[in-house]
């Protein structure tokens, strides 16, 4: 048995999701206030955070709910101003981590199969991969929407292995969260590397391999191959 | 009774919807073929036209259906490439007709209430108004999604009058289609002006006022006010 593939989580593993989404939301709020939203930036931000927590980040109507909460009624002009600004800023800021593309190139030179395992709406996650310029590195991309179940369900990880046509022991998995990434990937037999980045970097738990840069992934994979694990 | 307001249709009345959407679709097809779609541009374009005709232009999954029709299965990478290109090109080309803003300024100088009556998804129509830079001209914007019924239903036109707080006889309506704009607006008592533009410019039917430029709308409104209709 040797390593034949590497699977990556997407958000906060291959690009900075946490700060870029937050900055886009803050700019959107400023523009909504300019358009007439009757709140301070701080008030609106706190209400938005509460809505995101309640409804989840893939809920499609955060700004509608925000405006309803503050204005007492729907205001499509203010909502649309928020949506446009959010997307404009998000796309302006979206970029891979500085070590992402270098790492993917090194792994490709080692003839490894590469894949992405991500929670989210299929077209949205593909949009990120395409806009990040990294879509062509991946042999398979599996999303929770496509499979019908998301992280940390281990069936979702088994589905990813099936699409890669690999066994767990042949795969190295790289992700940022203990609960959603490292624990379930370990359960299906994958070798796991935790990247200490984004809002979950201080999440409790111990992973055998913990790295601060994706570049270290290359060395770990090489070591695992040499050891013939 | 005098003229107190002007209501406008949006698509192909205030901006060129027909050619800009068509160009965006053609560029999207080229990019999808680059990404692996197994068809010629002409084949793909014809299939897409058929899907749009069957499902309507506000159906949200034209590109999904196109890829399924050609490839026999869903391919999120190709679909997403199409969606991104479509939106990028659409926004790059989106602009008001050269006479739109001048006309709106003239009507505002006459202290008239202005509104938009449009079929479509509320946020999408507001997005067009905001990106066109003309949203602030309008006191009211009514969409078929908001009301629950669209053109040519005359209840939709009565709803627009109610939101404007005006009677039919106090309003001039400007639109490009006989069936969806001029006939129903006339039925609720509005004065109607047909703008001969876009893909419906040769549609059969006779409207009292027919114009080739929005600038002529200003003169007609002035004339109606002088006549004290």
TrEMBL record, chains A, B:
Keywords recorded for this protein, A-Z: Hydrolase, Magnesium, Metal-binding
Cofactor: Mg(2+)
Pfam families linked to this entry: HAD_2 (PF13419)
GO molecular function, one term: phosphatase activity
InterPro entries recorded: HAD-like_hydrolase, HAD-like_sf, HAD-SF_hydro_IA, HAD-SF_hydro_IA_CTE7, HAD_2, HAD_sf
Superkingdom field: Archaea
GO biological process: small molecule metabolic process
Family indicated by similarity: Belongs to the HAD-like hydrolase superfamily.
Function description: Catalyzes the dephosphorylation of D,L-glyceraldehyde 3-phosphate in vitro.
The protein, known as: Glyceraldehyde 3-phosphate phosphatase
Organism whose genome encodes this protein: Methanofervidicoccus abyssi
Organism lineage: Archaea, Methanobacteriati, Methanobacteriota, Methanomada group, Methanococci
């Amino acid at each position: 048995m040797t390593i034949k593939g590497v699977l990556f989580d997407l958000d906060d593993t291959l690009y900075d999701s946490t700060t870029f989404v937050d900055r886009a939301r803050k700019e959107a709020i400023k523009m909504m206030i300019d358009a007439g939203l009757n709140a301070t930036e701080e008030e609106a931000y706190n209400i938005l955070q509460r809505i995101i927590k309640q409804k989840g980040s893939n809920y499609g109507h955060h700004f509608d709910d925000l405006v309803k909460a503050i204005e007492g009624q729907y205001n499509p002009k203010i909502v649309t101003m928020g949506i446009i600004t959010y997307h404009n800023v998000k796309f302006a800021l979206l970029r891979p981590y500085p070590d992402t593309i270098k790492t993917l190139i090194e792994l490709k030179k080692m003839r490894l199969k590469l894949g992405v395992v991500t929670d989210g709406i299929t077209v949205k996650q593909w949009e990120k991969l395409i806009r990040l310029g990294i879509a062509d590195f991946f042999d398979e991309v599996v999303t929770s929407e496509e499979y019908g179940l998301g992280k940390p369900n281990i069936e979702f990880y088994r589905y990813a292995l099936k699409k890669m046509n690999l066994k767990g022991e042949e795969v190295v998995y790289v992700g940022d969260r203990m609960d959603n990434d490292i624990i379930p990937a370990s359960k299906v037999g994958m070798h796991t590397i935790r990247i200490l980045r984004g809002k979950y970097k201080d999440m409790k738990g111990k992973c055998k391999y913990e790295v601060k840069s994706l570049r270290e992934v290359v060395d770990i994979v090489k070591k695992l191959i040499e050891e013939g694990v």
